[in-house]
Amino acid sequence: MPELRREPVSGRWVIIATERAARPTDFQTNHHQPVKNSFCPFCEGNEDKTPPEIMAYRGNGSKADSSGWRVRVVPNKFPALRTEGEQNIHGEGIYEMMNGIGVHEVIIESPKHVVSLTELGNGNVEDVLRSYRDRLIEIKKDKRFVYGLLFKNVGVAAGASLEHTHSQLIATPIVPQLVENEMERAEAFFNNSSKCIFCDMIQQEIAVGKRIVTSTEKFISFTPFASRFPFETWILPKKHETHFENLQKFEIDELANVLKNTLAKLESALDFPPYNFIIHSTPFNIQKSEYFHWHIEIIPRLTNIAGFEWGTGFYINPMPPEEAAEILRKK
Amino acid sequence: MPELRREPVSGRWVIIATERAARPTDFQTNHHQPVKNSFCPFCEGNEDKTPPEIMAYRGNGSKADSSGWRVRVVPNKFPALRTEGEQNIHGEGIYEMMNGIGVHEVIIESPKHVVSLTELGNGNVEDVLRSYRDRLIEIKKDKRFVYGLLFKNVGVAAGASLEHTHSQLIATPIVPQLVENEMERAEAFFNNSSKCIFCDMIQQEIAVGKRIVTSTEKFISFTPFASRFPFETWILPKKHETHFENLQKFEIDELANVLKNTLAKLESALDFPPYNFIIHSTPFNIQKSEYFHWHIEIIPRLTNIAGFEWGTGFYINPMPPEEAAEILRKK
Asked: Could you say which residues bind Zn(2+) here (chains A, B) (predicted)?
């Protein structure tokens, strides 16, 4: 009998096919096949092929938009939103719209043509996470924007157009619906129980153990109880932390290790799958929050979204998260 | 400047790239390429290759699970949910789950190996819609199920595993989250305005005209103001109708015509794109509803869903619906 499971934070229902579980080798389509491009605008030496850099971690004496950097942040050449202008909310009868203002940046994670974050040295991964934090702190100062989403697309099937390892940051003038939904449900849980729903979940995952992928002093990664996708994996700080951008240096170092390790396990189990990861953090305009806890969601893109999912918001997952975690723990 | 638009029923935000609009020829990937399979279990003569039929429209004297049918409904051989058993809601600490009971049926739309609904004669399309209605009426009698989603996946990129033209029906023991969300927002709109939000939208679309694809006496198809995807198209009855299964014969005939015509326009403009369509109707356990209005959502699958969409619930649509409608009207 398949099982219907509800993800407590989002309220999403997932159908877990507990009977005929898939094996990692069942997901052979759309794998991320590293192919060297003939020309890559993200490689060191090609700095003039991107818009001028916003920020970079550089060696002493090296100049902006020249070589000598470790991590480099540039505006997206084809931005989804534009930085100039005001929000200007207006209506048209029943409809509501506003100007598409926002920020759309690309974090180039290495000067070398490397196609996975897991190929980077630990210090380099720490630099990447530090750049995430630094950009959020900077963008937060612009009061037009209330949210900043950090995300990563790896592989064509996951929406990547360039293979050189990179992440993106999009800041928006409104809190995204999915985040708002998670916040509302987490707040309702807090109002009922005086507890953070994420802290509760972490406690239960540690007690049960069967969905844990890695656990360190400060961080845990596990396959969520109601995973939408095979091998979906979340990373959370064990302590109640609201904003990603409040991360301290020693926490960044440990997170870099957990992130790289978790991704390496996925790559090993699934032969370099296409994947997305996204970071959900508390909106900029909420200073303190007792109920929202930042987290990273890693989504391997192995299955197709079809009519049933589009029509219901249900997901069908042929891989029970308990089995996925067991496979990942061994990698 | 891109435009942020909000879909009034779901509350979804969409980024419409009004500046650099795409052209239909920009979407060249993943097109639905009809390929004849060597063996097709849905073709007439192969009735023993599917589970025994639940219902079929047949010529006089022809027997169940033999040839002589026009439309045939069979259980899905690999069902997402199982018909036997009880709901049995239970918890595990913070988590909630239940048995995966439900109905999962396949509507085989033609005895011939045809790969698009648009290749069927009008009478045949009417039979398909009539089978949708008849199955909903039948399944509704089982009080364990509160919702039935009719949907269609066309092309591998849209999740189809067989090309022979078919639709699916999944009935669930709970109202899907997306439908519940639409119902809640529609109810709130009704409580504020004493009007059905869909009726209001239809009125505005007719007045404005620029997003209409087809309009007949009883039905309208248009590209929604906040289309998530290029060429997304909705079909609605102009009169306030709550349940798809309440359709009368003369309405079915007209809807068959509008559906076939709208799909033919999409196939002509986009060279047989992969697509999904889904039907949202009022849940079985709500007899009357002044605020919810059934509708068909057709989603061509031309663009990729990536980290930003997964993290926010926003969609980026490079094709303004006004331009899409203009292209479709001319086809």
From this structure: 40, 43, 113, 164
